[in-house]
């Protein structure tokens, strides 16, 4: 009887682990889907589609801006959301808004 309880507990633990992994995969898919319209990382794509490239790293999506003018426009404009950690370190690069 005790072995059956242990087996049932192990099965429940495996099912919870699979559920957590499935939910994490759905989360990663949702984060990546938000930036699907931006071309990926290869240099040929940046030459073809312009100076903005997206990079997927697990659940984090980064957008790279490859031209100095684009970087300045991005940093100086309040309409684009910025990562507070990174932006807090480089906001003085182009002067005060």
TrEMBL record:
SUPFAM superfamilies: Cytochrome P450 (SSF48264). Coiled coil: none annotated. It comes from the Eukaryota. GO terms for biological process: cholesterol catabolic process. GO terms for molecular function: cholesterol 24-hydroxylase activity; heme binding; iron ion binding. This is Uncharacterized protein. It comes from Callipepla squamata (Scaled quail).
